[in-house]
Amino acid sequence: MEKRVTFSKWTVGILFAVPQLLLIFTFFYWPAGQAVYWSLTLQQPWGGGNIWVGLDNFKSILSSADYWNSITASLVFAGISTGLAMFIALVLAALTDRQLAGSRFYRVVLIWPYGIAAPALALAFRFILAPEAGFMAVVNRMWPGFWDPGLDGVDAMASIIAAFSWKYVGYNFIFFLAAFQAIPRSLIEAAAMDGSGVVRRFFDIQFPLITPTIFFLLVINITESFQDSFGIVDIMTSGGPANATNLMVYKIYSDGFKGLDYSGAAAQSIILMLLIIVLTIFQFRFIERRVHYR
Amino acid sequence: MSMIKHGLAALAAGTISVSLALPAIAAPTKFDFWFGLSGDLERVVQTLCKNFNESQKEYEVVCTSQGNYDATLQNTIAAFRAGKQPTVVQVYDVGTATMMLSGAYKPADKLMEENGYKVDYSDYFPGIARYYATSKGEMLSFPFNSSTALMYWNKDAFAKIGKTEAPKTWEDVGADLKALKDAGYECPMAINISGNESWQLMEQFSAIHNQPIATENNGYDGLDARLEVNKTKFVQYVGDLKKWYDEGLIKIKSKDLGQDMVQAFASGTCEVILSSVGDHGTVTKTKKEGLNWDVAELPTYAGTERKNSLVGGASLWVLSGKSDAEYKGAAAFLNFIQDPKTALFWSTNTGYIPVTKSGFDYMKANGFYDKAPYKGREVAIASLTASEPTEITRGIRLGNFTQIRAEFGTQMQAIFANKVSVQDGIDTLVKNGDAILDRFQQTYPNKTLP
After folding, report:
1. Where is the ABC transmembrane type-1 domain (chain A) (predicted)?
2. Contact B273, B291 (CB under 8 A)
3. How many CA atoms lie within 13 A of A185 on its CB side?
């Protein structure tokens, strides 16, 4: 006789899953389905009616130079800010893990940035990086015209990358530190007794052991850089100058809500969703191979 | 426990029967008014609402700020789609074309007529009325907060170069800026080149010079209007601004860079700006001690016959799908707002100008314009009424104009960053703007502007 509790019918299982499914349906599938429908029509903003246009919205978006510029900007932003945020967090976590003097203090302080809402930190960075009034004004006084995010697209991009990376350094730091601390001390001590230095231990023991965390953070950082960048762009650059920082997520907002072009914005959000899916599949397919799970 | 329940039920029943028995002291009809002003201006609107509620007992307006113009329109659309729209909503100037095609409004002129209010439409300044009226002259919404662009100039700085008057032509402006620079002023003139400045740099400039922004009389005559600013005097204007910028006569000032142009002017950092008369109060309040300044009409190129400048701001729309009682309240509210006494209250507490001649006369009679800090604001009226509105200076009626303004900012930034030439940049502005207009037209097939 079986001693486990079993359910006679599979329907009971379904019943338990229903609340969850209902939630996912209401908050994900239904709006996503609505977005797909809108992307195939031309919606009148006030709801007076719509016209079926098939793939016209996608065609006009993909044939627009501005949109390709927006995709490029998003990829540049994602690549550099993810790289920066992960590298800095990795170094900081490795140092904190070494129990240097004051590491407890750093541990707390370095987590803070992630707790700050994107618009608030963007406002702070706007002041810090303002060419005439902020910290960069000092640099500008030494080299006039060096820093001009109002007209120079590269400077503007650098500003939003700095703000975004700063925020995600905190997030990545938590995970890296936890990963480092999960490595058995005995491994590191054994290596130390064998005579390997700090750097050698890092590359031969610690780094390989935290690759699952690195991979996880890579996926999260890239995904978030496509989505969470909105608040920063909105406050710091509004997509300018000359569209240099008009990231995909910001363009969706400005076309949809400011321009009342709901259909075009819906089509853009479908493309953004597909792009993130493709990037994530790519990462799982090709980068995960190099990850060593224990 | 059950005692309490019974007691409560009895109490509730009693309340209902009392309220049924006494319809005479029914609460006033409530209706919603959503607006897009915030900060200091929000408080003034709330006072205005309070004044209305205290002026009569039948209606009560509930006024809610939505933060800014964009958000007000977005939130109203969302509310309308959900059937929870406010009765009255403030929509900014460039949203007029979108509103007219929405099918979501009750024409304001009809509303007033149905509720027995006689409105003298000829009392509105034509430059203001025509901006919001249909091509046939019907007022579908009522002008509310109105402004126009002026040139702010620093009298002391100009005195240093031997001038006692503001330059009247752009040729003079060029010479004066040069002289100011030579006299040691670091920032003779400040501009900004985001989408927001399309208003003074492109729209006001074109109106004053009687230059079209788009075909079909700036869109009044049809949805097939397309931009044509790449063939007008506007190109020369941008070329001059760019040249002066390159020579260091013009500096770009924006909030993102640390200081916007109004702050730059009020602090005495820059000597000339082009901005809304709405900033008159801001400069008065925030200016550096002893700043000696004045406002003047926007300059024109030599040999231009000056036309009226355009009104900026917003109008009040009454939305469809509300009850008769709410419409009665809305009509009373609109009637209250266009009262000359309200105009005086409104203009005193904000930088906005009166929208009716009677309001203007009433304010003049009260000596409003004679002394500081309001002296100088009459220049805005002079600018708005410089001529009878022509087919082109009535206003701009283009769909999704907010996006075209954003495109203006984008291309101006590309031009000023030397990425493209002036002509190429404006050509791109026209090309991208036309794509926006094309899309708007496709969204409303078989529809025409009223």
Report:
1. 71-283
2. no
3. 3
Is A97 in the B-facing interface, judged by CB distances under 8 Å? no
Topology classification of domain B28-147+311-365: D-Maltodextrin-Binding Protein; domain 2 (3.40.190)
Report yes or no: A62 at the B interface, CB cutoff 8 Å. Answer: no
Q: What are phi and psi of B362, to 5 degrees?
A: -60, -40
Q: How far is B131 from chain A (nearest CA, A)?
A: 21
Q: Which residues pair with B33 in a beta bridge?
A: B63, B88
ipTM of the complex: 0.84
B103 and A237: CB-CB below 8 Å? no
Q: Considering the entire predicted model, what is its pTM?
A: 0.87
Domain B149-309+399-443 class in CATH? alpha beta
Is the bond leading into B212 cis (omega within 30 degrees of zero)? Answer: no
B370-408 pLDDT, tens digit per residue, is: 887 888 899 999 999 999 999 999 999 998 898 999 999
Whether B42 contacts B64, CB under 8 Å: no
B400 reaches A (C-beta below 8 A): yes
Fold (CATH) for A64-290: MetI-like fold (1.10.3720)
- Closest CA of chain B from A240, distance in Å: 7
Q: Is B411 on the interface with A (CB under 8 A)?
A: yes
Instruction: List where CATH 3.40.190.10 sits in chain B.
Output: 28-147+311-365, 149-309+399-443
Q: At residue A43, what are phi and psi to the nearest 5 degrees?
A: -95, 130
Q: Give the distance from residue B10's alpha carbon to the nearest chain A alpha carbon, in angstroms.
A: 40
